[in-house]
């Protein structure tokens, strides 16, 4: 091998190393399980940068989330699998931050990341697994109005007085109600708007708020924030859960 060939090989190796170094953890996943994934160059002073063997899932107030991974060649495939995992767990009423971290850790181990360190961050604190709902109806007025965007934490750690999302099996709908009583695995939910009237298409209708017992396994999450009507910056790319 002559000097020119050696030099050519060295240049090629240098270019490969430069390219690998450019795939940094300052690039974050704009993760949207319903419409695929896109990549954005995010200001690393605002979002966290993952270290070796570390995965950071960072939720934002608009329902989006960002995934930061270690530098590696399987970056996109790893993100896609984590993305699907988040989507599946959002739909699972028994999921929470711990189950999400456990499942993401298993995915990382399958990709050869030993002893993965999984972190979940959000503006509402560590290990807050956020998801978004949209209020539909007047049952929780005046606290929650029709069309409000709701930010909920996926957890069964609830107390009397909390506003929660739950799956109401008799009508097969997702509801938003206040916790009035807890008896073992049973939770009694009530509407803030107990009784009243409303107008629709020129007609006056009487309204009576729902009161019902549900199993704690049907609790999807606890309300941690809300935005009034059109006054929130909702991300159109993220699917919401309609709550009545």
Low-confidence stretches: 2-46, 233-239
Shape estimate: elongated
Main β sheet profile: 8 strands, mixed
Number of domains: 2
What's the total count of β strands?
15
| Largest sheet strand order | 13-10-9-8-14-7-6-15
Average predicted confidence as pLDDT? 77
Number of helices: 3
Radius of gyration: 23 Å
Termini separation: 75 Å
Oligomer: single chain
Helix content: 10-25%
The structure class reads: alpha+beta
Proportion of beta-strand residues: 35-45%
Query: Helices and strands, in N-to-C order?
Result: HEEEEHHEEEEEEEEEEE
Description:
- The chain is an alpha+beta fold.
- The protein has two domains: 3-121, no CATH class; 130-243, Umud Fragment, subunit A.
- The chain contains three helices and 15 strands.
- The strands form three sheets. It has an eight-stranded mixed sheet with strand order 13-10-9-8-14-7-6-15, with no helix packed on it.
Q: What can be said about this structure in brief?
A:
The protein has 244 residues and is of the alpha+beta class. Helix content is 20%, strand content 36%.
Itemize the secondary structure elements and their pairings.
Elements: H1 3-22, E1 27-32, E2 36-41, E3 54-59, E4 65-68, H2 75-90, H3 97-110, E5 117-121, E6 130-135, E7 149-153, E8 163-168, E9 173-183, E10 186-190, E11 195-200, E12 203-208, E13 211-215, E14 219-227, E15 241-243
Parallel strand pairs: 3-5, 6-15
Antiparallel strand pairs: 1-2, 1-4, 3-4, 6-7, 7-14, 8-9, 8-14, 9-10, 10-13, 11-12
Helix pairs in contact: 2-3
């Amino acid at each position: 091998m002559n000097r020119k060939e050696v030099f050519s090989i060295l240049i090629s190796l240098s270019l490969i190393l430069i390219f690998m170094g450019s795939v940094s953890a300052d690039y974050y996943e704009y993760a949207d399980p319903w419409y695929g994934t896109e990549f954005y160059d995010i200001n690393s002073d605002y979002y966290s940068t993952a270290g070796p063997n570390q995965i950071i899932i960072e939720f934002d107030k608009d329902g989006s989330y960002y995934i930061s991974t270690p530098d590696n060649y399987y970056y996109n495939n790893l993100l896609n699998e984590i993305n699907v995992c988040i989507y599946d767990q959002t739909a699972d009423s028994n999921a929470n931050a711990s189950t999400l971290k456990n499942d993401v850790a298993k995915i990382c181990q399958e990709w050869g990341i030993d002893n993965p360190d999984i972190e979940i961050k959000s503006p509402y604190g560590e290990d807050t697994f956020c998801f978004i709902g949209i209020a539909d109806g007047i049952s929780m007025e005046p606290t929650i109005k029709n069309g409000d965007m709701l930010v909920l934490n996926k957890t069964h750690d609830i107390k009397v007085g909390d506003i929660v999302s739950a799956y109401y099996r008799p009508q097969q709908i997702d509801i938003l109600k206040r916790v009035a009583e807890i008896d073992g695995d049973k939770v009694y939910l009530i509407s803030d708007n107990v009784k009243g009237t409303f107008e629709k298409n020129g007609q006056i209708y009487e309204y009576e708020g729902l009161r019902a017992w549900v199993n704690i396994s049907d609790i999807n999450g606890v309300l941690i924030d809300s935005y009034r009507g059109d006054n929130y910056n909702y991300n159109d790319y993220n699917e919401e859960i309609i709550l009545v």
